[in-house]
Amino acid sequence: MGLIKALTSSTGSAFGDQFKEYVECPAVEKNVLIARGVVKYGDGNKHPSEGVISNGSKITIPQGWAMMLVDNGKITEFSSEPGEFIYDNGSEPSIFHEGLGKGLVDTIKTIGSRITFGGQTARDQRVYYVNLLNVLGNKFGSAQPKKITDEKYGMIEVTFFGEYSYKVEDPVALVGNVLGANAKDQVTFDEVMGSQLKQEFVEQLTKAISEVMRVKKVSFGDMGLYGSDISDKMNEILSSSWKEKYGLIVTDVAMADINVTEASMERINKIDDATIFSDAKLQSGLMANASAEALKNAASNENGALMGFAGMNMAGNAGAGLMGAVNQNAQAQQTAPSTGTSDGVASNFCPNCGTKNNGANFCPNCGTKLN
Predict the structure, then answer these.
(1) Which of 173, 250, 306, 331 has its CA 20 to 30 A from that of 199?
(2) Which of 70-84 are b and which e, b meaning 16 or more Cβ less than 10 Å from the residue's Cβ?
(3) Are residues 178 and 192 in contact, defined by beta-carbon separation less than 8 angstroms?
(4) Phi, psi of 154, rounded to the nearest 5 degrees
(5) CA separation for the pair 253, 236 (Å, rounded)
(6) How far apart are the first and last CA of the chain?
(7) Are strands 21-24 and 38-41 parallel, antiparallel or unpaired?
(8) 158: closest CA among 230, 206, 224?
């Protein structure tokens, strides 16, 4: 048996004389994953037999679909190459796997010989078509908060939602496991991607997000930029349950949003605050912003600008004390000596009070801005 690529694509008046059967993919809805081929009998077949594809019959394969001929539960012909083929039962079996991995041949050997179609007649030939197009717009979301490990904040709880796409990578595995015990004329995506696989996707997505965050050393807020990395990780995690069993792979994951719970946000804010107040440069920036805001408020003080600036002066003295602590902290963080100029650390003197400073932005004594 085998498939021979047809030289012509005519299905007109010559059809009845040339072909005993003409097999084509039926018109189906876009959610159909597997469809049984429609057999049309030509004039050349005087005694058609149900369930038999005669020698010399033509089989057509549309773009984006794979075709397989199942003979008594065994896959004898396969092609993912679009076009028209002549069925020749006197030649060797044919496998055209354009666009699909060579591992497909091994799948045919292991799965293709044990499709039982339970309870069917002794002589049963069927042509099945499998949709190879990307299935887009599959929504996902975490019904409950999920725990992930963030590179910066550690273990946090998040909720997330978005869309993913997938496609059939191994049609033989899909047909063998989905139709093996229950032959049907059509199988939809929803029948294959039932609640179990959808739930598994969300559960494993949590693991994939944490893993990508760890490898890429990024925080949860940047995960929308790593859709392809998440897709690769999902295929690695889902290999046994999706690809090996159903021949499916994830092609893309688009994170629409990822949000932390209220409790985790409180923890994140505490960590951010601790980070700011342990960094002298960040502290100096905060003080500069606070001073600018104080000037603005003082000028608009309802009791008069003089009172406002007087209050600001008191606050400035308090701020100077704080900045003194800030600069002491900065000096403690330096690994080089803090005096002299030979070590690269400049010594400055405050023009207001004369206090010596070692490269600080503000005088630790009076708070005067130095640089």
Answers:
(1) 173
(2) bbbbebbbbbbbbbb
(3) yes
(4) 75, -145
(5) 14
(6) 87
(7) antiparallel
(8) 206
